[in-house]
Structures are given as C-alpha cells and as structure tokens.
Predict the 3D structure of the following.
Amino acid sequence: MIIWQTPAGLALALFMLGLLGLLARRSLVFVLMSIEIMLNAAGLLFITAGMRWGNPDGQIMLVMVLNLAGAELALGLILILRLRNRITNLDGDAANILRDVP
Amino acid sequence: MMITFYVAASLTLLTTALAITRSNPVHALLYFVISLVSMGVIFFTLGAPFAAAMEVIVYAGAIMVLFLFVIMMLSLNKVTVHREAGWIVRSVWVLPLFLVAGLGSELARVFLGGGSVGMIRVVSPQEVGVRLFTTDISTVELASVLLLTGLIGAFHLGRKER
C-alpha cells in the first residue's frame, strides 16, 4: 500500500522543481516548460486526492488540467513565435516593451 | 506495485531535474517526455488507469509534439544553445533555490500534518465517464469553452500581419 503522503510529496517536489526552473531560466521556451511541469504536479496532486478518497473526481479534474495545459501551451507557443520577430534570442528579459517600437 | 511506484517516482524527479537544467531545448523536452510517461505509470499505480492513458496520449503524445514542432520552427542552432549555456551559471540558481526551499518546507509541513493511511481502490474509466457525463457535465462544457478560447486566441495571434 502506498500512503497518500508519498505521491503528494512527489507532487510537491515536482512543483518546486518547476518553480525553480521558472525563476532561474531566462529562455522563454524553458519558462513555458517549467509552467507545464508545475501544471503536471498539480495534476498529480489531484490524482493523489482521488486515490485517497477512492473517488473519480480527481481524474475528472485531471482532464480539466490537461485541457488547461493544452490551451495555455498553444497560446504561449504562438506568443513565443510572435515575439521571435521582435527579440531574436528568446530572452524573456528583453520582452519588456509592451507598445510597438516606432 | 510499491517498487513500480518508487522507480517511476525517482525517474520522474530525475528527468524533470535534467529537463530544467539542459541548455538544448530539444534534449530538455525529450527528458520532459520521459518524465510525463513515468508520471503515467505513477497514475496507474495510484489506481487511476484512465488518467494514466490520458497523460500518455494527450500530454506526452499531443501537447509535447506541438511543443517540439514549435521549437523546430524556431530554428535554434549551435549559437543559441551556446548562449543558453552561458545563461545557466551557478549564481542564477542561488536565490530561486532559497525561495523554493522556503516555500517547499512550508508545504511539506502541511502535507505531513494529516497522518492517515489510504487503501487504494482502482477507479475504473467507466466510473469516471459516468460521473463526467452526468453530475459533472458542467466540467465538459467548461473545458470546451476553454479550448474554444484557446483556439480563437491562437488563430487571432497567429494571423499574418497585413
């Protein structure tokens, strides 16, 4: 038997790894990947809660998380593709001007 | 089942740690795909076969392939990988590591507070489907609205500028 704290701890560790990547990396591709890691950790926590109570709700929420990840990734990637025309090296710090450059 | 879980868990942690430290985006993404597949194994050992299948098919299959295609469209070369490697210096990790460790220890205390043991009951895909399309039908509607929003947004942003 697996006690529920073990997968919950794993989800916690994965979320922290994703947060670490989000804070430390500068390339926009890696920032997006770190967000995916954090979403995935949240999904694992939902499944863990579903296991703890023997309930299908956790898996239903995982379907929701997958939808969210898909929509978020599609928009994030298209924004990266658009930013590629402005900033050539995909540096997140360079994307600090919201208005059009004259 | 225990051994399977622990092997998959350590594999997930290892490959995720590798994924956030690589300088080549394609390598990082492939490590992340391995992490997602082992996450599917974890879901299976936790008694959620439907979620395991969804994780492998949708996440590792569809979403990561989309990611890979876009990275290939960005045409990253040796120069960008080299510059990326220049950004990953040790000093970059120090402050985020402290912040994350602080938050992580707080959350770990919360998780370790409630100490009860759960028996694993396998929740079958049929059960999930019945719940999803009867009482939780609003979730399906919400998901479709979300996907439609994403579709319209991607279409709008991806247009050629005139």
